Structures are given as structure tokens and as C-alpha cells.
Amino acid sequence: MELAAGVQLHQNWPAMSVRQKFHCIRAISKNIQQIAAIEFPTYGSLYFADVPIDSASKVPFAPGFCIGPHCGTRYWDCNVGEAKYYISVKLNRGPCESSYFMLTWRGRLEVCTGSDLAAYCDGLIDTGLSRLPPVNKALPEKPYFHGSIAAHTRLLSFGRDVIHKLSKDPRVMGTAAPTLYHADLHKRNIFVSDDDPTVITGLIDWQSSSIGPAFQYADKLPDFAAPNPDIPKEDQPADQPTDIISDLCSQAFDACLEIYVPRLSAARALDENLLRPFRYCHRTWRDGAVVLRHELIGISTRWKELGLPDSCPYPVPMSDELVVHEKEYKDFVIAEQMRQRLAYLLDTNADGWVATEAWEATELAHKQAVDIFIQTVRDEKDESMSEAHLRKIWPFDIIE
Fold first, then answer.
1. CB-based contacts of 243: which residues, under 8 Å, 6+ apart?
2. Taking CA 211 as the corner, what is the angle to CA 205 and CA 215, rounded to the nearest 5 degrees?
3. Beta partners for 179?
4. DSSP code of 311?
5. Closest CA to 385 of 341, 327, 322, 321
6. 110, 170, 276, 342 — which has fewest CB within 10 A?
7. pLDDT of 1
8. How far apart are the first and last CA of the chain?
9. Does residue 275 contact residue 266 with C-beta atoms inside 8 Å?
């Protein structure tokens, strides 16, 4: 294994001019173009052909390679606190069996996936179910909107029926081609030249990358192209209006994808209401039942408006249940907004990852942020947000 040449883009990005950032985004997009252009026979992960796994789990690919079970982070125990239990389901990581047919859509023939997309749907739901712990297991305290094991199980059952129906829609099938993409394409994993930060010298951290339907990546925005969360002006550098530059970089990335990676651009252009249920059904135990419930309510409410046939398998809850749900979802959104703002202020990712050398300084900054938020709540005396409630929805661990 060779060391990546150059320096992390993360180190150079703050000092780069807007023009340099645009040229860098174009160079990154050209790298994505090479990866996304590869035609794969099915969903899964790329292995050497002689990998010692069951031959039934191998789909032949190019000489010396095969497609095997997913190694993406959604399918295996990769993060602290995200155990798998497999109480009600068996391990389901693919590879999915392939089935292709021609579909006329928007006046042209498209190659579409069949049974493999159905198997992909089952893999998502089975992954969600595999994360539900035994009912008698002692668990750490979760936010009140997290939901019971029974609530998660019920929602995942509805979710399976919903995404199976959505997967048969021509618009979804038209953006479901098996596509390889970098699972964590962020500035810390991109290396650029020491002399010219617009020249890409390497991409690292490929271990979790896998082959999924193109629409799986429709909402995957690298941090260099993601619009900033609502950061107050006083928290932004005076010499560079962060929000404007971030918006411009986001637009530049969209334009580059349209030119260099039309497969991903088409997926990003699809009505996201058709895709949102796919994004959350495998991670309900991490996000809380409230998130998948919100997406199921949304798709059920818009079912006819979206031109979907028959009726949605998920019934819209009664009015009193909707009131409770809206309160829970509002608190979830507040918690996520705090997470985004803290990630920006503390220079971490959304999960709170911190480089070892920056741990002590980040821990101190986090404690100061907690103190500021709590004091603000105490001073404002807002009935909708007490100190106890703030602590319940705080996105990171509070160490007293």
C-alpha cells in the first residue's frame, strides 16, 4: 500500500481562492467520472476473484475480480453503539441477483434493473431490523422521540411494502443502475498537490465503498459542496462570506456532475420524495422512529400527487397521532440543526469524529458550547425549551 502524495485538501481549503475551489471541484468531478462510468452487473462490493468467501456469494466481473456481499457501512458493525442482533432476520448483505430489461422513458430506451432492486430493498429493511436490540436488553437513554422496539418493527414492516412499490416506478428504475461511488468523499480523504491545490493526487478511505443504485447517492454531498448550516454572521470569517462561497461551491459541484457524471446528476434531479423512504429505513434505530415515520407520512400524503399507482401501503395516522408526531419531529429537527452547527463550529463531521491531535481542544470547545446553550436557555426562559429538554436532545455526549 502506497502513501498518498501531497496534502489533505482539508488543510488547504480555507486559504484557497474561490477560483481555485471551482477548479478543484472540477478535478474531483473528473475523478468521480472515471469511477461512476464503470458498468457493473449487480449491487454489492468489489472483491478479488479468489477471495475466500462462499462461491454462491460471488458474481463474476472483470478478469481477476468479482462482486460479493456489501461492505458498506450500512451493512456491518462499523460504529460504536451500532450493534447488530439478527433476532428476527438473517444477515442480508447481497450481492443482489441481477435482472435487466429495457424501458422506454422520456422518449428513449433505458437499461433498468429488476429483481436485484427488489433484493436491494429487502437488504435495507433487513439491515434496519438487525439493529433492533432484544426487548429485555438494558439500553442507554435515548431521546424521547426515538421510539420503542415495537414501533420500529411496525414502521419497518410498512417501510418494506412502501419501498418495494416505489422501486417499481419507472422514474426510480431509470436511476437505479449499479454504480460505484466513494462512501466518504470529504476534504480529509482527498489529497492535492503541495504546489497546486487544484491538482488531485489521491483519494483515500475506500474500504466502505460499494456498488449501489445510482439514486442511493442522490443526497450524498461532499463537505466541500454542502451548503453551510445556518451559521450566525458573528461565527463566520469576516474576509470570506462563508454562506455565499458554500452556495457557489454547491452550484459548481451540481454543474460538474451534470457535465461529467450524468448518471448521478439524473438521480439528483429526481423528485426526492420518491427516494427519501429508501434513505432512512436501514437506520431507524440510529435516527429514531420519528424520522422514518415522517417519511412514510410524507409519501403517503403525496402518493397520488406523485403519480404513483393504487394506494400507499402506509395509512396516514389519525389527527391526534399526527399532532404528537409533529411535536416529536420538530424536536428531532432542532437536534439535527444543533448537530450541524456544532460540527461546523468544532470542525468535526456530523458524527462528532475528531482527529486525535485535536481531541483536547475540541473537547474543551464542546464543553464551552454546552455551557453557552444552557445559559441561553436559562436566560430566555422559553417554555418550549427547558434545560432538561435541551439535554435530552443534545446531539453529542455531555460530559460534566
1. 227, 228, 231, 236
2. 110
3. 212
4. -
5. 327
6. 170
7. 61
8. 42
9. no
Q: How far apart are CA 400 and CA 390, in angstroms?
A: 15
Which three cell numbers, joined as nine digits, stand for 93? Answer: 448483505
In 3D space, the residue among 396, 360, 9 whose CA is nearest the CA of residue 189 turns out to be 9
Could you give the CA distance from residue 241 to residue 243 in angstroms, rounded to a whole number? 6
Residue 178: phi and psi, rounded to 5, are -55, 120
Residues 6+ apart with CB under 8 A from 102: 109, 110, 111, 112
Strands 190-192 and 200-203: antiparallel
Q: Which residues contact 256 (CB under 8 A, 6 or more apart)?
A: 25, 26, 28, 29
Give the amino acid at 236.
Answer: Q
Given strand 7-8, what is the order of strands in its sheet? 7-8, 190-192, 200-203
pTM value is 0.82
Tell me how many helices (H) and strands (E) the chain has: 13, 10
Phi, psi of 84 (to 5 degrees): -115, 145
Mean pLDDT in consecutive groups of 10 residues from the start of the chain, 400 residues: 86 94 97 93 92 89 92 68 73 63 43 67 92 84 86 96 96 94 90 96 89 92 78 52 82 96 94 94 91 96 96 95 94 86 81 83 90 86 77 79
Name the E strands within the chain: 7-8, 45-48, 59-60, 65-68, 100-105, 108-113, 178-181, 190-192, 200-203, 210-213
Vertex 99, ends 97 and 101: CA angle to 5°? 165
Return all residues near 249 (Cβ < 8 A) that are at least 6 apart. Answer: 21, 22, 25, 224, 225
User: Pairing relation of β-strands 7-8 and 210-213?
Assistant: unpaired
- Helix orientation angle between 115-130 and 149-166, rounded to the nearest 10 degrees: 170
Q: Say if residues 219 and 279 touch (Cβ distance below 8 Å).
A: yes
Output the nine-digit C-alpha cell for 79.
Answer: 460504529
Residue 264 vs residues 112, 198, 225, 256, 269: alpha-carbon distances, Å: 15, 22, 15, 11, 9
